[in-house]
């Protein structure tokens, strides 16, 4: 109400049929900003919050604190213990989801219009006044440790943990986001309180909403929900170089199909060549059937069910990652084919036909993503995290269209580095030597 | 704290306990002259459509000995036709900014594309083409067979929980083809050939065995005209077999099994009971079982969770799962993942004790009210995702239900009484119709 300021309304004019999707920039009376798309045909609201920082805020002696803290947000808050909190959210049919990532804590909510105020009050308590009751801590700690142990027997989790350690060493990125069995066992309630204070603060929150809510209502909601959070949180970690040096690292594990992850240094989200790199990777390794890797490794040779690569521009480092799984007997061949494709793209770039095809795909697919309240809210909060402005939805396709074959060739030569492309293979691969 | 649901997802992926299929969405249905059924679900918020064709045939309709052929054929449908080169189908979808995929289950095989609304005619043209004009050669077969074996490696062989599930399903079903994995037994997959795939194709891929679902920004009359011009020109298969699969005999002996694997990090116990499914015009018992699964294992406040995670520290995770939408007898399952220091024997005893107490104490009315309210809310949330709504229609229609059944389902769920639930529980919790499985670490095999 009252002082609500609507800074701007951006309309998706680039895509005429979507002209009704209006992004409003909302500032609450208390000064909290959010992006909103009003859509009143279904009586609910999708709300997305991202707190920048995430598990990489964990200190060296409290690995896993942020993750355990996030898991406990729905395990009792305000005057309600875990059971009462769950009963209350069930009675409102509000859907809350709290997830820890390395660079962010994500909170997703879906709330019915008919009881939105009560749902917001409940969500507010979980963010501002989580209880961290002793019995809840022990119960959830047991679940997290069980999950950590499962990861130690899961080929994909083993591979990613090894790759992160090779790439990032002692930086928080080099450690499992959930911590280790020992580190989680040692976490105290004070560690959780401190992780909570450090991670959920107003100086790092991004908000989007889509659905049956007006700008005025959202403004009031923001102050209720987030107004009592601390102004500032923990300092962000340092940037870290990617320390991958190439080769194949085998982690022996008795399983019939080897899982291989591969990576090299990537490209930052705000690099002028990020777009060209994104399009280049779509041609090389997007998981669809049109990519070179899928064509060569799966369609032509039948070596895998799926192979893909993708850019991972983290806040403090940039990775270029991929994954393939193939029987122990054939994974060496799959890796050789991937390396060959990496070299070929680095050397020759893409073809005119490939670039044309990928442009029609990317420009046609983009508006299809904005097709529901939940997906719109998710995309909008991601745009804010990436530092984009609302009119990005209008300029994005033009950026794709403007790319030339020379752009692709330049970025391929600059980015793709077969020498540092490092494979971590978990399994009993035949014909792959482990150096050292 | 829902993270354990992630690694148990294979186990519970068939359960959709909050499936509230009806909604206020505008649904139009009609049939073409050749017997093909059409469902149009309108959602005009964005100019996007999902175009799906569902065949009323899945892995449970396969001939014995060629397990996996339904899924294999699903892969092969992306090879060429008389007019499309291999791979061209997906390439043309992508050129138009769309995404496509397909999935196979026991009771259906389905193909879908998600595209801008004005590209619907092209999708219908291509999908109707491959319903009858598939062209395959031996090279396609050999390469793609390796792909499905790698898919089996990824989904099953590399995951002890999935291998355990295969053994439990094979044990639960004495006669029903549901005991055979959808992806196929490996030794049979390795021998699947061109003729096996073509035999399945000729038998089942015909308009009178298919359902067209168009969901999103589509006009029913336009869909009808397009469907008549594409699918409507295809001949029905007069030889289409009646869907009558081997049924379960009376089950008279409880089954127990232990699956050991060095890769198991977290042991658990699963009990699965044979259970009735939703039948056309008779969904009440299945609705009671949906609510039973929610009451026992649906979330933090569920009976098992309270008893085994809150009142005692017996488990780190509990769940109940039930898949109501199925052509033949389905299953009702209970899971307990024991806490540190609790044996599987103790976990199973605690499960049985909790069930016995539930059968005496009955249902907490406040809990039942909360569950029913959440189901109503789910109908609202689901309207945001027209693709998932379309999938619910497809699953139900290929399981022998009608559009009327689908639209009545939310009300049937709301009408369930505590007495209905307890009666359904008494009927289903019969150990003679159950399999109890222990997934265990194999210490001797560790490295």
Automatic annotation (TrEMBL), chain A:
Residues 187-361 form the Peptidase M16 C-terminal domain. Residues 39-180 form the Peptidase M16 N-terminal domain. SUPFAM superfamilies: LuxS/MPP-like metallohydrolase. This is Pitrilysin family protein. InterPro entries: Metalloenz_LuxS/M16, MPP/UQCRC_Complex, Pept_M16_N, Peptidase_M16_C.
TrEMBL record, chain B:
Its cofactor is Zn(2+). InterPro entries: Metalloenz_LuxS/M16, Pept_M16_N, Pept_M16_Zn_BS, Peptidase_M16, Peptidase_M16_C. The keyword Protease applies. Residues 1-19 form the signal peptide. PROSITE patterns: INSULINASE. Belongs to the peptidase M16 family. This is Pitrilysin family protein. It comes from Mesobacterium hydrothermale. The lineage of its organism: Bacteria, Pseudomonadati, Pseudomonadota, Alphaproteobacteria, Rhodobacterales.
């Amino acid at each position: 109400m009252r002082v609500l300021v609507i800074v701007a309304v951006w309309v998706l004019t680039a895509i005429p049929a979507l002209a009704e999707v209006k992004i409003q920039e909302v500032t609450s009376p208390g000064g909290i900003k959010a992006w909103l798309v009003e859509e009143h045909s279904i009586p609910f609201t999708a709300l997305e919050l991202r707190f920048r920082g995430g598990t990489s805020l964990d200190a060296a002696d409290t690995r896993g604190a942020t993750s355990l803290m996030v898991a406990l947000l729905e395990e009792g808050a305000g005057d309600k213990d875990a059971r009462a909190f769950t009963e209350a959210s069930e009675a409102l049919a509000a859907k809350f989801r709290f997830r820890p990532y390395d660079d962010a804590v994500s909170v997703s909510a879906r709330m019915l219009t008919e009881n939105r105020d009560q749902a917001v009050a409940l969500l507010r308590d979980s963010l501002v006044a989580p209880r961290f009751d002793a019995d809840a801590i022990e119960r959830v700690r047991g679940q997290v440790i069980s999950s950590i142990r499962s990861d130690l027997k899961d080929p994909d989790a083993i591979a990613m943990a090894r790759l992160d350690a090779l790439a990032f060493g002692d930086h928080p990125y080099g450690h499992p986001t959930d911590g280790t069995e020992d580190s989680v066992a040692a976490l105290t309630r004070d560690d959780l309180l401190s992780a909570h204070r450090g991670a959920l603060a107003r100086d790092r929150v991004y908000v989007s909403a889509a659905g049956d809510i007006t700008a005025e209502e959202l403004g009031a909601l923001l102050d209720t929900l987030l107004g009592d959070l601390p102004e500032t949180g923990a300092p962000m970690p340092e940037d870290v170089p990617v320390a991958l040096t190439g080769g194949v690292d085998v982690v022996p594990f008795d399983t019939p199909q080897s899982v291989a992850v591969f990576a090299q240094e990537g490209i930052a989200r705000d690099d002028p060549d990020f777009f060209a790199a994104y399009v280049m990777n779509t041609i090389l390794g997007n998981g669809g059937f049109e990519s070179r890797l899928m064509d060569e490794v799966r369609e032509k040779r039948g070596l895998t069910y799926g192979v893909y690569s993708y850019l991972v521009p983290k806040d403090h480092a940039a990775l270029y990652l991929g994954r393939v799984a193939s029987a122990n007997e054939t994974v060496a061949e799959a890796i050789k084919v991937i390396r060959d494709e990496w070299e070929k793209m680095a050397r020759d770039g893409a073809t005119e036909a490939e670039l044309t095809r990928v442009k029609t795909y990317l420009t046609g697919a983009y508006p299809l993503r904005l097709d529901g309240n939940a997906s719109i809210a998710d995309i909008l909060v991601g745009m804010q995290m990436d530092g984009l402005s609302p009119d990005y939805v209008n300029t994005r396709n033009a950026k794709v269209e403007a790319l030339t074959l020379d752009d692709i060739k330049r970025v391929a030569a600059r980015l793709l580095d077969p020498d540092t492309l490092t494979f971590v293979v978990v399994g009993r691969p035949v014909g792959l030597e482990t150096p050292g | 704290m829902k993270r354990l649901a992630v690694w148990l997802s294979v186990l519970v992926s068939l359960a959709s306990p909050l499936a509230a299929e009806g909604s206020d969405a505008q649904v139009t249905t009609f049939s073409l002259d050749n017997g093909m059924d059409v469902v149009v679900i309108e959602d005009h918020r964005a100019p996007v459509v999902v175009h799906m064709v569902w065949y009323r045939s899945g892995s449970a309709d396969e001939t014995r000995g060629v397990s996996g052929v339904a899924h294999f054929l699903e892969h092969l449908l992306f090879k060429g036709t008389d007019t499309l080169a291999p791979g061209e189908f997906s390439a043309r979808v992508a050129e138009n900014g769309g995404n496509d995929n397909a999935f196979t289950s026991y009771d259906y095989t389905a193909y879908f594309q998600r595209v801008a609304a004005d590209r619907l005619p092209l999708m219908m043209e291509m999908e109707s083409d491959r319903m009858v004009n598939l062209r395959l050669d031996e090279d396609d077969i050999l390469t793609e067979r390796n792909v499905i074996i790698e898919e089996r490696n990824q989904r099953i062989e590399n995951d002890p929980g999935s291998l355990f599930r295969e053994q439990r399903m094979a044990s639960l079903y004495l006669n029903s083809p549901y005991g055979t994995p959808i992806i196929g037994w490996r030794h049979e997959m390795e021998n699947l050939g061109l003729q096996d795939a073509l035999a399945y194709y000729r038998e089942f891929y015909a308009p009178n065995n298919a359902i067209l679902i168009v969901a999103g920004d589509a006009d029913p009359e336009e869909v009808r005209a397009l469907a008549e011009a594409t699918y409507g020109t295809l001949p029905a298969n007069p030889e289409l077999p009646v869907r009558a699969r081997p049924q379960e005999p009376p089950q008279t002996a409880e089954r127990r099994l232990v699956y050991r694997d060095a890769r198991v990090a977290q042991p658990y116990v699963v009990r699965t009971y044979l259970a009735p499914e939703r039948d056309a015009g008779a969904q009440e018992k299945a609705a009671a079982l949906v609510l039973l699964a929610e009451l026992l294992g649906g979330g933090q406040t569920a009976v098992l969770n309270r008893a085994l995670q809150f009142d005692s520290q017996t488990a780190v995770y509990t769940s109940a799962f039930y898949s109501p939408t199925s052509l033949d007898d389905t299953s009702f399952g209970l899971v307990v993942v024991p806490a540190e220091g609790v044996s599987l024997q103790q976990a199973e005893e605690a499960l049985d004790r909790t069930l016995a107490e539930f059968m005496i104490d009955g249902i907490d009315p406040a809990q039942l009210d909360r569950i029913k309210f959440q189901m109503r809310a789910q109908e609202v949330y689901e309207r945001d995702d027209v693709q998932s709504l379309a999938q619910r229609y497809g699953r139900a229609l290929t399981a022998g239900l009608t559009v009327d059944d689908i639209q009545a389902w939310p009300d049937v769920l709301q009408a369930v009484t505590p007495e209905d639930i307890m009666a359904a529980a008494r009927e289903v919790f019969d150990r003679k119709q159950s399999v109890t499985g222990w997934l265990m670490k194999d210490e001797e095999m560790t490295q």
